[in-house]
């Protein structure tokens, strides 16, 4: 039913009310049902964002633009790893848990996202991945981005368009992390076990 009512007895998805499915616009319900069929459950971010339909549409349109594009050198797993690393710095429980799960699914590596979430500098990463995360975290932490940052990426096969993609994912998820923070967005229980075995 996608409503706050289904959460009785358990911690709420968000501190904001989740509209009942019958009260949501058709296009939002259609997207939510498509995601639920594909994944077997509906990630709580869809429920929480449905509180504001216009913002829901804008949020997921931009998410799709950066996460599902077919160009560039970033793999889906790379993008998820960027999200885990930057969300850990931003202390976003929802995004670390949810995107760590998706990373595990893409890579079949049950430990790497956990390592990155705790301390990316000690994680079992390639030099390429280290350069990618170093740039993403510089954006995440609002460091002064210099030509040296771009040159370091270029040494590992990333061009300026890839740098844009890395930076845009870090920036978008900084916003997403803040939304999750003030709404008290809770990860779905399914995310904790996905891709672990």
TrEMBL record:
GO terms for molecular function: peroxiredoxin activity. It comes from the Eukaryota. InterPro entries: AhpD-like, AhpD_core, CMD-like, Uncharacterised_peroxidase-rel. Residues 53-101 form the Carboxymuconolactone decarboxylase-like domain. NCBIfam families: ahpD_dom (TIGR00778), peroxid_rel (TIGR01926). PANTHER family: CARBOXYMUCONOLACTONE DECARBOXYLASE-LIKE DOMAIN-CONTAINING PROTEIN, SI:CH211-175M2.5. This is Carboxymuconolactone decarboxylase-like domain-containing protein. It comes from Pterocles gutturalis (yellow-throated sandgrouse). The lineage of its organism: Eukaryota, Metazoa, Chordata, Craniata, Vertebrata.
